[in-house]
Each structure stands twice: as structure tokens, then as C-alpha cells.
Amino acid sequence: MKVLALTILSNIMPKLEGYEFWEKTLGKPRFIVAPMVEQSELPWRILSRRHKAELCYTPMFHSSVFTKNPRYRKEALASCEEDSPLIVQFCGNNPEVFLEAAMLAQDHCDAIDLNLGCPQSIAKRGQYGAYLQDKWELISQIVSLAHEKLSVPITCKIRIFPSVEKTVRYAQMLEKAGCQLLTVHGRTRDMRGPVTGMADWSAIKAVKAAVKIPVFANGNIQSLQDVHRCMEETGVDGVMTAEGNLHNPALFEGTHPKVWDITDEYIDLVKTYPTPLSAVRAHLFKILHHSLMVHIDLRIDLARAKSIGDCEEICKTLRGRCEEDAAKPDAPTKPEDGKLPHWLCQPYFRPSPKEAEAKRAEKNRKRPLSMIIDDLNNEGLSKSQIKKRVRNPSVIFHRPVRQYEKCAKCPNPRGLKCVFSECRACCKHTAHKAVADCPGHHLLFATKKLKSDRWEAEQREKGLLTATTAAGDALNLDTEGSNAEQAGTTKQLDSG
Ligand SMILES: Cc1cc2nc3c(=O)[nH]c(=O)nc-3n(C[C@H](O)[C@H](O)[C@H](O)COP(=O)(O)O)c2cc1C
């Protein structure tokens, strides 16, 4: 229904641009939920919208996979009436492929966004996201082709450069190529993981002043106060949040709901709109972050949860415990040291890069990094092994190799039960030559010889054996013996 309406509208209405698009199509949104891989999926978007989010982005999808894989496409485009307005985000580095993916999605959304901000190593390998930052010509081609051919506007999400002046030129280049709305994440490509640090709103302010299209600010938004402060300081048209929204989806309402109310609401939505367990678990970890720091056993249970039912059970148990904590006479009723009681949705403040480094040093018993590296060098570790060991001191690289005893005649491992302390091939040779048995290798030359001698004697006593037949039969017996032996070996191999 929604798709049909969008298709008809796009056929009869001219494509809106810039502020007209932001105002009429999107409804002047100021509170925006960021694109988040595995996290801004349909149930989460609905939950956020029910708590005052005014515009949502899908997670980033890979344009090339999107064009080739119908199942990926179907899952990516899962939406409903309530899920509007919506922007679908893609990454990619080929203008035609990006356009093809965008064309397949344009009837399901209000705009298509180009991800120019992903700083992960997978983006580096695939040469997309923030790693296109240095290829302005290519970016310009992707945006201008999409602007020319799509029935919906093309928007972009960027990271800043260390230089404000270069960031401004970058934004102007995108505007010129046809970008109709720009989200600026106020961190550089290198600011990620433990060195994420604070976003620079002054760069966002400079971009906003230099372009004529609507601009959203992104970074450092953990509360409604931050939203207002950011809009005032930068003059942007809307504010986008990712981590703040994951920890408190009611951020735009300016409230701090009880964690169990939010988990119950989310799980109900997941039951209506099927969602991968990994995404559900990741959401629960974020919402319940502070409570799970207190009830650590449930944290472990949640990590091991195998179904949505398991997650629901864990949330129920946690609710019981949180309600007990809240009913205690000494339970806090207002923030202490700026922190709310753990059972209320609230932001998580990452340690600053300096604090993260100090924590790592503490873990390594406060020894300077150079000393640790020297020690690790002495262990004969490679550069990448040293890096891994610094990050995780308990990682083991050299697992002890099991030592095998060698065969008495060759470098192969000896059979552990061999009477000659040899490998099977050597043992067979030795035992045959000596007409001996090696039960360890199932070689029974002596036993067989004895049996054959006995049989020969019996036959001779009965007068049934002449010298020639004895020789012939003995020959047959030998063959039978070796066949039986071969069969034994095959059986051994099969069972092995
Ligand atoms: C779990 C997670 C997934 C993300 N996935 C995407 C993505 O698919 N596309 C994108 O442009 N940014 C993605 N980001 C980056 C956010 O959109 C946002 O730019 C960044 O987290 C900074 O905003 P914040 O300070 O509010 O967290 C992701 C962030 C998180 C935490």
C-alpha cells in the first residue's frame, strides 16, 4: 500500500529538493535516529518513533549485495505504515551499481543516503564509507548520477576532516553534485574504537553556514539537553543520535523510562516483526547496560541466550531484581554523581581516549608500553601478535606442539604399541624378515607360519600331502595370510 502510494506520488509530483524536501516530504524533522548496522532495524525504528523520533534511517546496506541477493533485499526493505519518514542508506563505490541498488529501494522510502562515514576496517578493505573521503571525483559521480536518475532525493552522511576548511569544501562539493541533505558526524575517520573522543561541533557549524541544503549534526548527543544545545551552537536543522538512542530510546522525549518497560515494548515489537537474535541481544545489552553491571550473572545468561524466549525470561528475572533494588530503603531517588539509578534508561559515557589508554596500562600492571613491547619481542612474537597481546594479555600464540617418538629406522612417528619401536611400514618389513609378530600393528607372521606348519604336518600324517602340493598350498596359504592381513589393515583404516 505504502509502496504503491509512493510510486504514484513520485510519478505525478516533481522531485522536491533541499529545504522543500526536508519540510514537505520529511515533515521538518529535528529528532533523527542514525543509520546503524544491525541496530536501526524495523522494530527499533518503530520503538524510537513511538518515543518522539521524527525521522529514521535504515542500517547501511551494501549496494552490490543488494542488487544481487533478493533475500537480502527483502529483509533490508522490511517496513510498515508506521515506519515513515524513512531514508535507506547504502555504501558503495561504483556509480552504476549504487544507482541500481537505489532504484530497487526508491519506492520503499523517502530518500537514499550514501554512507561516506564508515571508518571500520571492512570499509577500508571494500573501499567505501569514510575511505572514499579522498576520492572526490568518484563521490561526485555517484551523487550526481543518483541525483539525475532517482525519483527520490539523494542525501549523504560524512565524517569531518582534521581541517575545517577542507570539510567545508567537501560539503560544498557534495552539494554541487546534487546532495539534497547532509549529515555531518563531527569526528574524523581516525576517531573510532578506544580513540573515539568528542565530536567537533564547530566544524558542523562551519558546514551549516557554507551550504544551502539542510544539515543534520551527529556526535555527542546523549540527552534532550544536548539536542537543544547542539542546535543552538551549530544552527543545524536536525540532530542525529546513534549510541544515545540505543541506551535510551526515549532520549528525544527527555525522559528516562524504567529499563523493563523499554525491553518489554521492544520484545513485543520483535514478536510482530521478526528480527535476528543477534540484533535483539545487542539492543538488550545496550538498554540494560547499567543493570547488567550490577547483576553480572544475567549478563552471562544474556550472552548465552539462544532464542527470543530466553531473552524474555532473562528480562523478566532482571525486572524482579531491579524492582527489589528500587524498593530498598537506601535506593537512590535522584542522580548520584551525575548517574541515575541503574534501572533507568540512561546514557553510557565511553572513556575518553586518555582514560582508555590509562585503563589498558592498568591492565598491564602500569608498565610503560615500550617495556611490554620489549618483553614481547623477546618472546619472538610477530608485530601483529605483539599488538594482539597488548590488547589482550591472556591471548596464547604458541600452543605446545605434541611431540611424537620417531621410528627406530626412519623419521616417521613410531607406532606406540609396536614391539620393534617402528612405524608400520618399517615394522612390516622387519617382522616379515624375522617371521615375527607385532600385535600393535596387527602383523602376525610368526602365528601364521606356526599355523601353516601345523596344517602341513597334519596333512602329511594323513598322507594327503606330497612335496609339490605342500609347496603350492603353502604358497596359497601365504597369499591368504597376506589377504587376511590386508583386510585387517583396511578395517583398521576404515574405523580410524
Ligand atoms: C551499532 C552502530 C552501528 C552503526 N552503523 C552505521 C551505519 O550503518 N551507517 C552509518 O552511516 N553510521 C553507522 N554508525 C555510526 C552512527 O550512525 C553515528 O554516526 C555514530 O555512532 C556517531 O553518533 P553518536 O555519537 O550519536 O553515537 C553506527 C554506529 C553504531 C553505534
TrEMBL record:
Q: Which cofactor does it need?
A: FMN
Q: Where in the cell is it found?
A: Cytoplasm; Nucleus
Q: Note the InterPro entries from the entry.
A: Aldolase_TIM (IPR013785), DUS-like_FMN-bd (IPR035587), tRNA_hU_synthase_CS (IPR018517)
Ranges for domain DUS-like FMN-binding come to: 33-289
Q: What reaction is this protein's catalytic activity? A: 5,6-dihydrouridine(16) in tRNA + NADP(+) = uridine(16) in tRNA + NADPH + H(+); 5,6-dihydrouridine(16) in tRNA + NAD(+) = uridine(16) in tRNA + NADH + H(+); 5,6-dihydrouridine(17) in tRNA + NADP(+) = uridine(17) in tRNA + NADPH + H(+); 5,6-dihydrouridine(17) in tRNA + NAD(+) = uridine(17) in tRNA + NADH + H(+)
Q: What are the boundaries of the region Disordered? A: 475-496
Entry GO CC: cytoplasm; nucleus
Q: Does the keyword Acyltransferase apply?
A: no
A GO molecular-function descriptor: tRNA dihydrouridine synthase activity
Q: Could you identify this protein by its name?
A: tRNA-dihydrouridine(16/17) synthase [NAD(P)(+)]-like
Recorded source organism is Strongylocentrotus purpuratus
